[in-house]
Design a protein that fits this description.
The structure is a single chain. This protein is mainly β. It is built from 1 helix and 10 strands; from the N terminus they run H-E-E-E-E-E-E-E-E-E-E. It has one helix at 13-18; strands at 22-29, 42-52, 56-65, 67-69, 76-84, 94-102, 113-120, 125-137, 143-145, 153-162. The strands form 3 sheets. The chain has a 4-stranded antiparallel beta sheet with strand order 1-10-3-7, with no helix packed on it. The chain is elongated. The model has no long low-confidence stretch (mean pLDDT 88).
Length: 171
Amino acid sequence: MPVTWQTGMRLSPARLNALPKGVISRGQRSTTSAFTSGSTELPILRLDGVPVVAGRLYHVRVVNVHIDGSTASTDMARGYLRYSTAGSATTASTQLAAASLPVPDTGGIASGTDIHGEFVAAATGTLSVLFTIARVTGLNANFRTVGGTGFNLELTVIDAGLDPGDTGIDL
């Protein structure tokens, strides 16, 4: 719920605790991953031990995902954000979000893709978030994530404050 400020109000712990905390965990991969061609997910970057509080909304994102191909390709890869509140996230953990990642031909690098997901903590504890890639269609082209200057992949968890609940209207 948003905090409404009125003249004469004082800052209290309850009002302060309701505010967003901002970035609470961040990881960066500055190296290129191993090549993969399979449909089995390849782990790329993980954040462990992220503190979460029941009833708060967390924005999880991976940004600057670039894919590099080593063979001629019409393949499509997919990037996944997975999470666990019971230890380290694995490729079998609950999917939070996913996005398609075109696999470029040999020597090409696909433009950067960002993947975003929202997580509402059901209980106070810790969160683990994992970013993976896998091929979803095509003929087994080799591909990988690219790291290095200008291509640093970043995984971030942002505390967005108290969860207002689903206020959307399906149309």
